[in-house]
UniProtKB/TrEMBL annotation:
The gene is radA. A motif (RadA KNRFG motif) lies at residues 257-261. NCBIfam families: sms. This is DNA repair protein RadA. Residues 71-220 form the RecA family profile domain. GO terms for molecular function: ATP binding; ATP-dependent DNA damage sensor activity; damaged DNA binding; hydrolase activity; zinc ion binding. ATP binds at residues 100-107. Belongs to the RecA family. RadA subfamily. Pfam families: AAA_25, ChlI, Zn_ribbon_LapB. It comes from Psychromicrobium silvestre. GO terms for cellular component: cytosol. The keyword Magnesium does not apply.
Length: 460
């Protein structure tokens, strides 16, 4: 095949470039003047043109209809909640980046995945750069993650780690973490921008060549974003965020990027000393169990991705001892709660200006979607009047500043989930298409205004 010439660039001279956004400057600075990232400006060269020959094609391009896609079928990991988030399992040759705060349980989750995958699908290589092999072995024994086909190595050198991969050729490679590996062929310390870029590119290249699924652990910054160059998120096929509060056992797994499946699914896990387990039905964690209804509480149904979760909102009002009443929240957006208190104060007869307000969720769950507005308002009014809401009642809907109750996505899906868990009444926003098919024995009241809901539940 004939070779054609093309022009590429080489380096000569001195200048500096941001590894994140490509901004250039004549002198080194600690912070990029374009994207404001710290520590991403690196020395490069002034480009001059040279000519090189195109390489000979070894494998000709194939028609897309003739490409064999069976090699990319999903493989179940053995962890149902992880498979749900990934869209059915892992894809051979795919590279998955799992990011989360220190101590959230990333290593425990991946060690559990490694053992279960090894028992069902073949060899797994676990490369740990943060702990010794003995430490990982102790955790594996504690959580029951011992498997004959699971291989473990403690390594910080990229070249040696790749040597283990070439020798074993595993079906699944786990690297914990990508920031701890370093390449001798690249300048900089482990975890730096250039090192992370080189390590990730090398691991991705070998994963594609061997058709080997790869799971990478990534650190996060104090702002919650993934540490390292932004290029890292573009290179991998799937980016997952592992979230959770230190005082709570609940952990949530979300996919923010997925080339092979959806990004609107959420996986729920229970992290304990015995290990980590998937929660197919976590709603019970977010609802208190009391024999009789209590004033100041309201059950709502939140959507986490496509998944409906029942949660309880609690409110307590007390006479303020100061001229400026206190507004405290937990698990809710404080500014949105303050807005709802103002709406109740202005659009109803409620007098909340002289009372301290405490509004919280049960079980440490965070509710951020506007659909929880109606339940917050009802919980506050229940606390203000001292009257408990009816048992087995749920409420959801967005409340506007004019007191209107706006439709929210997934009305029927929320109703079906509430019915499945034993609830029988719902107060929902009115929508042009209606609430959809209603389960037998389930009562639904549609409201247009907040006042309608309050008149229904708190009649004079």
């Amino acid at each position: 095949m004939a070779k054609t010439a093309r022009t590429v660039s080489t380096k000569s001279g001195n200048s500096y470039k941001c590894a994140e956004c490509g901004w250039t400057t004549a002198k080194w600075v600690g912070r990029c003047g374009e994207c404001q990232a710290w520590g991403t400006v690196e020395e490069i060269g002034v480009t001059v043109a040279r000519t090189t020959a195109a390489s000979t094609v070894a494998v000709p391009a194939a028609r897309i209809a003739e490409v064999d896609a069976s090699a990319s079928d999903y493989l179940a990991t053995g962890v149902g909640e992880l498979d749900r988030v990934l869209g059915g399992g892992v894809v051979p040759g795919a590279v998955v980046l799992l990011a989360g705060e220190p101590g959230v349980g990333k290593s425990t989750l991946l060690l559990d995945v490694a053992a279960k995958f090894a028992r069902e699908n073949g060899d797994v290589l676990y490369v740990t750069g943060e702990e010794s092999a003995a430490q990982v072995k102790l955790r594996a024994e504690r959580i029951g993650a011992i498997a004959d086909a699971l291989y473990l190595t403690a390594e910080n050198d990229l070249g040696t780690a790749l040597g283990h991969v070439e020798q074993l050729k595993p079906r699944l490679l786990i690297v914990d973490s990508v920031q701890t590996l370093s390449s001798a062929e690249t300048d900089g310390t482990a975890g730096g921008v250039s090192q992370v870029r080189e390590v990730a590119a090398s691991l991705i290249a070998v994963a594609k060549r061997l058709n080997m699924t790869t799971l990478l652990v990534g650190h996060v910054t104090k702002e919650g974003s993934i540490a390292g160059p932004r290029l890292l998120e573009h290179l991998v096929d799937v980016v997952c965020q592992f979230e959770g509060e230190r005082h709570s056992r609940l952990r949530l797994l979300r996919a923010t990027k997925n080339r092979y499946g959806p990004t609107d699914e959420v996986g729920c896990f229970d992290l304990s000393e015995q290990g980590i387990e998937g929660l197919a039905d976590p709603s019970g964690l977010f609802v208190s169990r009391t024999k009789d209804p209590v004033s100041g509480t309201c059950i709502t149904v939140a959507l986490e991705g496509k998944r409906p979760l029942l949660a309880e909102v609690q409110s307590l009002l007390a006479k303020s001892a100061t001229t400026q009443p206190r507004r405290a929240t937990s698990g809710l957006d404080s500014s949105r709660v303050a807005m709802l208190l103002a709406v109740l104060q202005q659009r109803t007869e409620a007098n909340l200006s002289e009372k301290d307000s405490y509004v919280a969720t049960v079980g440490g769950v965070k509710l951020t979607e506007p659909a929880t507005d109606l339940s917050i308002a009802l919980a506050v009014m229940s606390a203000n009047t001292g009257k408990a809401l009816p048992a087995r009642l749920i409420a959801f809907g967005e409340v506007g500043l004019a007191g209107e109750v706006r439709p929210v996505p997934g009305i029927n899906q929320r109703i079906q989930e509430a019915h499945r868990l034993g609830f029988s009444h719902a107060v929902v926003p009115a929508s042009p298409s209606g609430p959809g098919p209603i389960p037998t024995g389930f009562s639904v009241r549609e409201v247009h205004q907040l006042g309608e809901a309050l008149s229904l539940l708190f009649p004079h």
